[in-house]
Here is the input.
Amino acid sequence: MEQRDVLSFGSTGRSGRLTVETIARRLAAWGGTALRGDPELSASLPAPESPAAPVAAAVLVPLVDHPGGMTVLLTRRTQHLAHHPGQISFPGGRLDPEDGGDPVVCALRETTEEVGLESDRIRVLGRLDRYVTGTGFLITPVVGLVRPPFTVIPDPFEVADVFEVPLAFILDPANHQLHARVAGGRERSFWALSWGEFLIWGATAGMLVNLSEVLTDGEG
Here is the structure.
């Protein structure tokens, strides 16, 4: 099993004006109760007890508090997974019975399982809007602060790579690319961000755009 230290990237610009308490306050003010994703899915979400209801899931949006500026930790999924193979994602997964229906418990558990980051290294700051995916998941993004140093231990079955992107890059709207493609006879729009060799798109990019909206709300 591979072990390595998380790489440190400095960041400047808008994220440099954000403190941890400011981030927590803006997340609390945002509320995190809205729905995102496919507009039709969001508008006609079945009741939780319905057989057609999406599967409840949660992810951790890890903000790594480096001295030179915050980054966001992301993973690249392995190619053999049934859902979203090879895509860039946050650590996370579906809620298990042991989570007691709590997305925070789920996000922290999945983070430990996927990248070896223990929950005692993470301070939960709040939540982003829930995200409905076309693959049948209703995801709650939980934002957590991670203080280095720490070591990541990727689960080789699920995680092909772990990397970080400067928060300043994510907060810059010039890096938010809106794309469209035809699927199922309809044109669907989705967000994408390109960082080095990594193309972040779909639900993960949508959540990052949401994070940018929350953290820059009220800024000029």
Q: What stands out?
A: The CA atoms of residues 105 and 173 lie 31 Å apart.
